[in-house]
Amino acid sequence: MKLKLFSFFHLNLAYSAIETHQYKTVIDKCYWPLLRIAKRRQLPFGFEVSAWTLETIAKIDPEWIETLRDLVANGPCEFIGCGYAQVIGPLVPAAVNEANFRLGMLRYEELLGLRPKIALLNEQAYAAGLVPLYREAGYEALIMEWNNPAREHPEWDEEWSYLPQFAKDCDGGALPLIWNKSISFQKFQRYVHGEIELDEYLDYVHSYTSSSIRAFPLYGNDVEVFDFRPGRYMTEAPLSADGEWKRIDTLYAAIQQSDDLECIAVSNVLNLMNIAGAGNYLQLESAAQPVPVKKQSKYNLLRWAVSGRDDLGINTRCWKIYDALQASDKDEDADWMELCYLWSSDFRTHITELRWQEYLERLKTFEARWVCTDQALVSFGLLPAVSPNKDNGMTVKRVGRFIEFKGRRFTVRLNCLRGLALETLIDATVSGSSLCGTLAHGYYNDIQWGADYFSGHLIFESPGRYKITDLTLVEPMVTWVEGGVVVSAIIQTTLGVIEKSWLIDEAAGRVVLSYKLHWKDTGLGSLRLGHITLNPEVFEENSLAFRSHNGGNDFDNFPLMGSDFDHGRAVSFLISCNHAVGMTKGVVEIGDKTRSLVIEVNKAQAATVGLITHRKVRDQYFCRLALSAIELDDTSRGGDGSPIAIEIAISCR
Hints:
Blueprint: E1 3-11, H1 23-41, E2 46-49, H2 51-60, H3 62-74, E3 78-80, H4 94-112, E4 118-120, H5 131-137, E5 141-145, H6 147-151, E6 165-168, E7 174-180, H7 182-192, H8 198-206, E8 214-222, H9 244-257, E9 261-263, E10 281-282, H10 302-305, H11 311-327, H12 333-342, H13 353-370, E11 395-399, E12 402-406, E13 410-415, E14 421-427, E15 436-437, E16 458-461, E17 468-469, E18 477-481, E19 484-493, E20 496-505, E21 510-519, E22 526-533, E23 545-548, E24 556-559, E25 565-566, E26 587-591, E27 596-601, E28 609-617, E29 620-630, E30 644-652
Parallel strand pairs: 1-2, 1-8, 1-9, 2-3, 4-5, 5-7, 6-10
Antiparallel strand pairs: 6-7, 11-12, 12-13, 13-14, 14-15, 16-17, 16-22, 18-19, 19-20, 20-21, 21-30, 22-29, 23-24, 23-26, 25-28, 26-27, 27-30, 28-29
Helix pairs in contact: 1-3, 1-9, 2-3, 2-4, 4-5, 4-12, 11-12, 11-13
C-alpha cells in the first residue's frame, strides 16, 4: 500500500529573529523557491500564512502573491489559514480569537480570492474551547500535532495518527482533525540542513509504509529556515553547500519516482475519514496537559505567557487595550487587527532588540489611543474604611501566632509567623470545615512530603540564588472596611518591599489576597504567588476537577481522578515550568461535585496564568493552584522593573 505523504509550509515574516529589512531577502531566498518547486513538479503543497504576512508580502512583492493565487486557484496547491496574526489562542480572550479568525478570512478573500477551509492552530497550541470559534469562522478542519496529546493519552491507538480524527469541543461538537508530527518535520529539517543524507532520510520515511492505508505528514513547519538563517539559535546548522532548496527538490523528485510513496494534498487526508481507525472523537487536552503545544516540553504555554523579554508586562497591556475596545462603541476592524498584531506570538520569544523597540513604540502608541493611564483598575479590594462596629457580627483577634477573623459567613486564620499565610478558610454557607489553607509538617506520612504546605504565599526562585518568599514574621495591621476587614503587612526582602493584604469581604462573600511588589530588578527566575492548597479531607477525590477558559467562550473541564502531575515542575535547569492554564476569563474553579473554590484575577492588572498540581501521596492526595507571573526559559530576558500588582479573589460554592 502506498504511503500517502502530505506537506504544508508555514510562512511567517513576523518570525521573531527576522529583522524588517530582511523581509525581501526571505521572500527571495525562501518563499519564491517553494513556489517554483511546487509549480515545476506540480506538487500539492499546502501554504499556511497569516493574513498579516500576506499583506506584508503584497507590499514588497505583489508578483509572489499573484503566483500563489494562481497555484491555488488552478492547482496543484492549496491554502491553509490561521488568522490575521499568529496569536496564541489559549492565552487571549475569546473575542480576540473571534476577531483574529474573522478578519483573517476577510483579508484572505481580498488578497487571494478565497476563504480557507483548513486551519493550522497557531504554534499548535490547542484548547477545546477554540474548536467552536474555528467552526464559526468557517473552517471545516484543523491541523494539530499528534505527539504531545498522544503522550497524555496512552489509550489511543498509534494507527490513529495516520488517519483523520475529530477534535471534540466542550459541548459535544467537533471538527475533523489532521495530524502533524514534530519528529517528522524535525527529521525533514535535518535532511535539508545536510545533517543526514537522502538515503538515510528515505529509509526513515519508508519505515512508515504499511499494508494499511496511511497518511503521513512529511513536513509541516517553518520555511524561513531553508537557505536562510534567522540567527535565532547558537546551534543553528550552517547553510548547506549544496543549496537547501536543491536538496528539497531532490527529495521530492525521489518521492515522485518511488513505487510506494505518493504526494497528496493536505485536504485529501480527510477523504480517509470513513476507513477503519479513522473518525474517532477525541479529547486532545488533559488535566496534566490542558493546552498541548508542538515539539518538545520546553515549548509550552508559558513560553508566550510569562517569559520572554517582558511577557507579563506586554500581555497585561494588551489586556487593558482589549478591555477598552470591549467597552467602546467606536472600535473598528482596524483596531482589532492592530490588537491581534500586538498579541502575536513572535514578540514574546526571541525577538531582536531592534524589533523589540519598534514593538514597544507601536504598543505605546496604540495604548495611548485606548487606555487612560490615570484611570484606576477595577479592584476587588477597594472598599471604604469605616469605624469598628461591635454589632456587625465580625471580630478580629490575635490567637497565639495567628490573627483570626470571625464573621457570620467566614472564619479566616492568618499566620503572623509566616507572612500572613492562610491557615484556614471556612465558609459557613458551604462547609463547617476549612476548604483550603495550610497542611502542616507531618500531615503526610511520607518523608518526601515532610514539609509545610502553605496557602496565600509567594515564592521567587532564581538560578544560583537563595529562594525568596514572604513566609516571615510580620506585625499585621487591621483596617475595618465596609462589609469586612483588611489585614495587611509590609514585608522586606532582598529584592525589595512587598505590600501584602487580605480583605475578608463578608458582604460580597469573598476573600481577596493582594500583592504589590516593589522589586526593581528580579533578574531571571520563577515568580509564583497566591498558592491555594486544598484540604483533602473536605474534597472528595473521585469527583475532584478543575475548569477554566483557554481562549474560548466555554469552560474547559478537567477531571483529576487518576492523574498525577505538577504543572510547575521544571523541565530542565533552563525551563522552569511545563504546562499552564490560560485563565482567559480570569477564573479557575476547582472542587468536587458538592463544593468548589473559585479563584479570580483581573488579567488587565497582571496577566498571570494558572498552575495546577495534583499528586498522589500513598492513599491520600495533594492538590494546589498557584499563579505564575514570571517563568524561566530560553526566551527569558527579564522585565522592565515595574512594580507587580495583583489581586486574587477567592470565593466558595
